[in-house]
Amino acid sequence: MRKRIRAGDHDAFGDLFDAYARSVYNHAYRLTGEWTLAEEVVSLTFLDAWRLRERVDEEGGSLRPWLLGIATNVTRNTRRAARRHSAAVARLPRDEAVRDFADEVAGRLDDAARLTVVRTALAKLRRGEREVLALCVWSGLDYRAAAEALGVPVGTVRSRLSRARTKLAKHLEPPAARGQTSGDRGTAVGPLRERNR
């Protein structure tokens, strides 16, 4: 058989594979601990055995030790290549995660809708109320400073601000859902009494 393998006899090599593939696989699995990698080692081992067939001595016993030696080297090279690949991948710059901007767009649309409601509500205020609201709430002035800025008494600032807040609260309330009753919900959802006819 050794002579036939050295000569490149395909049938002899097929017999060699049939005789020792399981043994090579078991050896590779013990070295790697992974069945898929062990299968790859078997393939590469027999590929190398075919390539190195002329180095087989014509005399000798079983070719199993020769194949297991090749399998050991193939496993070592495969692991080395895997380590190099992992190291190379680790050196690559990380891709920045692409943000999902759907929530941001939805938030902007909600903000735009809310801003439209606020602008509409502000437009319903009197000019003096808007001015007091702008000075006291948005600019952070106290009543005395707002009164000085507008040239009005402090009491006027307080009353305008109070009216502005009340009107805004009324205009910014979400509309009641159709079919809902306001007030006592207990009555609306209470048990129905059947009438005797």
From TrEMBL:
InterPro entries: RNA_pol_sigma-70-like (IPR039425), RNA_pol_sigma-70_dom (IPR014284), RNA_pol_sigma70_r2 (IPR007627), RNA_pol_sigma70_r4_t2 (IPR013249), RNA_pol_sigma_r2 (IPR013325), RNA_pol_sigma_r3/r4-like (IPR013324), WH-like_DNA-bd_sf (IPR036388). GO terms for biological process: DNA-templated transcription initiation. The keyword Transcription applies. Residues 118-168 form the RNA polymerase sigma factor 70 region 4 type domain. Residues 169-197 are annotated as: Disordered. Keywords: Sigma factor, Transcription, Transcription regulation. The keyword Transcription regulation applies. One of its GO terms (molecular function) is DNA binding. It comes from the Bacteria. Residues 16-84 form the RNA polymerase sigma-70 region domain. It holds the Pfam family Sigma70_r2. Belongs to the sigma-70 factor family. ECF subfamily. This is RNA polymerase sigma70 factor. It comes from Streptomyces resistomycificus.
